[in-house]
Amino acid sequence: MKEIPIWEKSNLTLEEAAAYSGIGINKLREITNEPNCHFVLWVGSKRLIKRKQLDKYIDDCFSL
Q1: 36 domain-assigned
Q2: Which of 3, 41, 42, 64 pairs as cysteine with 48 (C-beta 3.0–4.6 A)?
Q3: 55: closest CA among 38, 41, 42?
């Protein structure tokens, strides 16, 4: 199977999102546990991060 680069994926695992954004896995887990988090996608108990919405969230943040 061909490996898709992270910047072309629409949804990322926590590990991929951490590598992509520079935000730690624990901080991403903390942010995505909040009920008003709009960039998390739950597939059963699996947590995926919506890459484009994560980019927007980071652009709009002053600090984490």
Answers
A1: yes
A2: 41
A3: 38
